[in-house]
Amino acid sequence: MHLESEDQIDIVALIAKVWKSKKLIFKSILVFGVLGFLVAISTSNQYTASSMFTPNYSNKASGSGGLKGLASLAGINLGSMSEASSELSPMLYGKVLESATFKNELLASPLKNIDGVTSLREYFVQQQKKTSFLGTIKEYTIGLPSKIIGFFKSEQTGNTLETIDGISKISEDDFEFFKSIDEILTLSINDRDGFIEMISVSDHPQIAAQVAKNGELILQNQIIAIKTKSSLELLDYLETQYAEKKKLLNQAQDRLSNFKDRNLNISRSSFSDKQTRLESELSTASSVFDNIVAQLEQVKLQVTKDTPVFSIIKPVVFPNEKSGPKRSLILVIYLFLGVVLSIGFILAKEPVQDIIKEIQNKESA
Q: Residue 197 in 3-state DSSP?
């Protein structure tokens, strides 16, 4: 009972202390309320556009044994056609979205109905110019230390790096644009239900809608390129072989025709033997050519099988209504912060002062 009464007295004392400083709390609420109101009205409207789609794969592969052997002769590792036609996990789509290849294509993607810009890169440049004054102030105040460090780093490594094949170099401007893309575009993958949603959020409704659509198309094209890489390499090899073997077949046909034309009335055995050899060469060239044609048709079919078809579940719709911000929620959060911070200051003020006095007394002693 004694402990409970002590706790009750402490709580009452704390409440009394807070109530005694109620004017400070009201002032804090007023200040944070005004600040929250300014933040709420100065925050730009946000618009959200999205595209929902699902990939459909063909998992059946037939007649792949000969193609596998032919691919190995061409120096192409197909593994097996069952492996080549297996699904590419949608969980990897997010990695494609993070790649520099995807972001560079998105920056170059066309934009319409936006004054002064024809691509996403130009839009970002335009936005940079609009905020150049505030950006300059921030750069030479808060960002001055990092700017100085970056200057010395660039001096040290400016002209010493060589280009390496297979490794892309990203400029500082593009790096900033990539971060802007990350803020605008996100990918939501529902692995259970098997659909993918491309979500774009921007303060410009045209940007939100067009970035969502462009991102959807670029992602799908890159997935198709990954899935069909091996079969397309084999198709390119077979098309080269087709052109070469067709040329050899035509040459064999011409040699046999010319020989017959020159020796219509000659029946000696030597001419007969040569004619037989020429006919044999033509038969061999024709057989090889027919085999290449058959393989070429198989690979064309395999490319079709390897190419995923994306079914659009929910197409991109132009956002007519804003999706954010929730200004009332911003105001409530700031009012809550005003209450919490002011009460925290009141309760912590005396203990902190006592600690400081104690430290000063020990130093003076």
A: strand
